[in-house]
Amino acid sequence: MGAQISKTFNKQVTHVVFSNGHLSTWKKAKKSDVKLVSVLWVVRCYDDGVRAEEELYPALNDESNPVLKNKKVSTHRCMQPKDSPERTPENDKRMRKKLNKMMKDLPLKQHISTDVSPIIIDEENGIVYSPALKRSDYMAQRLKDMKEKRENISPTGMCISSPVIIVCLMFQVMRTLVMTSMPTEQQNTVVQVVKALGGFSIVDRVCENTTHVVSGGHRRTLNILFGIARGCWILSFEWILWCLEQRQWIPEEPYELSDRFPAAQICRLQRHLSAGEHQQDLFQDQPAIFVSQHSQPPSQSLVELIQLCGGRVCRTVRQAGICVGRYRGRRPEGTRILSEQWVLDSITHLKQLSYDDYDLE
């Protein structure tokens, strides 16, 4: 972007990009009246193509950060793993006592409002779920209510400010994070932050243990769609940068890509509220679906997406009511041939979209 980089502090320096650096560099910059900015300032300048206001992206050091004020200064501390043993309920009596108290209080806090609950109670047949559309509306309303009350449903957010930290420690080995639409430099940053802060393992593909999908852009990738279908957090790379800046996991909600992927919040809330294994039912009422071997994305990925959303997939077109992707062979009368985009767009918006806009005939 036209700037000159200096490895040492000298009179020609006008800006210092400070992220967990030496205290002496901080003091020199303050004494020389040089602008101290965080790495987010560089990112914003690159994204906007113009010089951003430095005051909006101030740098932090250990003295100004209350979280680290009483901690010993260490060179590149945020990139070093902790040497102290991890506290768990098994080796810490205080944590075990808190966990037991939480387990006793847990049934008292589980409550669902009866006037908008998506569950219909049938005395003869037991508990029956209401139609998918009603549940989707309920989840949207529940999400709105939680925002108004500022309920924190973020697993990393709970680790920061809530006594539920014990639960986080118990399950953190199970959580995985996936990167998508991300250049190598950003991937390296994510790897370093995860290694320093812990709590996640990084995998290439969204699986049942994945809770976070971090995107370097706004492209709709397969990992994004799998993340939506499985109820994961869909986050921008800026979340990682702020975690690096604060040297701790911060709440995800401000960095969620909900404008680009509107179904992400609702699916995430459904997973959060589900008692057992999370299962979407977007395609549950659709006829049997056959996926063409020539489809793009690959048929195996489309089949998995459809099944994750409650759809029935058949192996031959003779059994299908819907064929996804181009198919030149014979098919039963009445079978609709739809573009692959019908599946992808339906998942993105969590709606059963009209066939007419995706008909390939």
UniProtKB/TrEMBL annotation:
Highest taxon in the source lineage: Eukaryota
Record field: compositional bias (Basic and acidic residues): 83-93
An annotated GO BP: mitotic cell cycle
Region (Disordered), start-end ranges: 72-93
Domain BRCT intervals: 1-59, 170-257, 278-360
Ranges annotated as spanning the membrane: 152-174
Keywords, ordered alphabetically: Membrane, Transmembrane, Transmembrane helix
Xref: InterPro entries: BRCT_dom (IPR001357), BRCT_dom_sf (IPR036420), Microcephalin-like (IPR022047)
Coiled-coil stretches noted in the UniProt entry, renumbered to this chain: none
PANTHER family in the cross-refs: MICROCEPHALIN
Name of the molecule in the record: Microcephalin 1
Species assigned in the record: Echeneis naucrates (Live sharksucker)
